[in-house]
Each structure stands twice: as structure tokens, then as C-alpha cells.
Amino acid sequence: MLNKALKAGFMKDYLNSPLIIRLMVKNDLPLVLKIIDETMLPEDVDSAKHTFMLYFLEKEGKISSSIYLSKFSLGEFYVAELNGMVVGVSGFYKYDYSYWLGWFAVNPKYQGNGVGTMLLKKVEEKVRKSGAKELFVYTSMHQKFEKARKFYMRKGFKKVENVTYPRIEEDMVFFCKKL
Ligand SMILES: CC(C)(COP(=O)(O)OP(=O)(O)OC[C@H]1O[C@@H](n2cnc3c(N)ncnc32)[C@H](O)[C@@H]1OP(=O)(O)O)[C@@H](O)C(=O)NCCC(=O)NCCS
Q1: What is the predicted pLDDT for the residue at 119?
Q2: Residue 79: CB within 6 Å of ligand 1?
């Protein structure tokens, strides 16, 4: 009952307030990691922490991606903000010449309201401007990511088999969207 009321409250907030998509800053990290913790696998939190630590060090000019990554480079990461609260995250990175969607997650209480759609749109716009003709994403076949797999298919991504990517594990599925 309480959950229902809370959810109704969140929806009302959502409908009455503008959703802002902006670049992620360091202060967003605790909420971003909380969202990843609530939506992904336990090991993903440390991995995200590591990625974002490098991302901010690079943004601050303290390191260059060539130091820690070979063919990878981090692009930009964005958050969706509602009433001053971070409710979603997404961004992209480059591997060789391909662009990849990464760390895409929305607070479960706000899912199904278009937040993910807006975050994806932002990434697509940005990579298109960078000259990319396609956007890749991979996800696990784990049941936790079923919503995401369906989301990608509905947003115009198609499954692809032959992908050049360094960490191919058995239960991974790759998608590509023509931009
Ligand atoms: C995948 C994920 C990010 C999508 O986020 P989301 O905010 O729920 O996405 P949206 O609300 O934009 O889209 C979901 C549905 O809401 C619908 N929707 C509702 N209101 C909408 C609005 N105002 N505008 C656009 N779409 C709206 C969409 O059409 C879509 O419906 P459909 O699934 O029938 O097409 C989210 O499910 C998630 O965090 N999953 C767990 C983490 C995860 O798996 N991440 C990906 C790892 S690779």
C-alpha cells in the first residue's frame, strides 16, 4: 500500500517536473552507484566505480586514457535529473572505431516513464555528431537484463553476432543500431 502511494507520488513528481539530461559530475557518483547497485549485478558496482574514477581523473586532466586503456577511450557520461535528484545514468565509450553505449540504468521507481528513452537519445545525438554511423551495446543474458534487451530491440537495435570486442563471454548478447 505504502509502496503504491510512494510510487504514485513519484509519478506525480515526474509528470510535474522537467527531466534534465546533463553531464555527470563527481557529486553524482553516490546516487549513480546506488542505481547501478539496485539494477545490475553485484560485481558491476566496483566495475562502475573504477570506470567513473578514471573518467573523472581524465576529465580533470590528471591522466590520459592511453595510460590505462589500449584501444578504449571513455566518451561522455550523462545523468537524468528530476527535482534535483539523479534518477538515471548512461554514456558511451569508444573501442577502436566503434561507439558503445555503457552504464545505462534508471532507478527502478522511475522506470517506464521515458527516462531511459531520453538518456539513449542524448547518447545517440552525441555519438552521431562525433561521426558514428552506428551504436553498439552488449548485455548479459542474465534475467536481470531482460527489460534492457527488450528495450534495445524496441529502440531499433538489432542483434549482431560477429563483433570485435575484447571481452566476449558466453552469456553476452551484442546489439547494434544504425544511426
Ligand atoms: C533499460 C532501462 C535503462 C530502460 O529505462 P526506462 O526509463 O524504464 O525506459 P523508458 O521508460 O524510456 O522505456 C520503457 C518503456 O516505457 C515507455 N514509456 C512510458 N512513458 C514514456 C514516455 N513519456 N516517453 C517515452 N517512453 C515512455 C516506453 O515506451 C517503453 O515502453 P516499451 O518498453 O513498451 O517500449 C531500465 O529498464 C533499467 O534500468 N534496467 C536495468 C538496468 C539494465 O538492464 N541496464 C542495461 C544494461 S546493458
Answers
A1: 98
A2: no
Count how many Cα atoms sit within 13 Å of the Cα of residue 19 in the half-sphere of its side chain. Answer: 22
12: its cell numbers: 506525480
Q: Which residues of the chain have pLDDT under 50?
A: 1-6
29: helix, strand or coil: helix
Superfamily assignment of 18-178 in CATH?
Gcn5-related N-acetyltransferase (GNAT) (3.40.630.30)
175 lines ligand 1 (CB under 6 A): no
- Cβ–Cβ < 8 Å for 105, 89: yes
Q: Which three cell numbers stand for residue 68?
A: 590505462
Residue entry with cell 513528481? 13
Beta bridge partners of 63: none
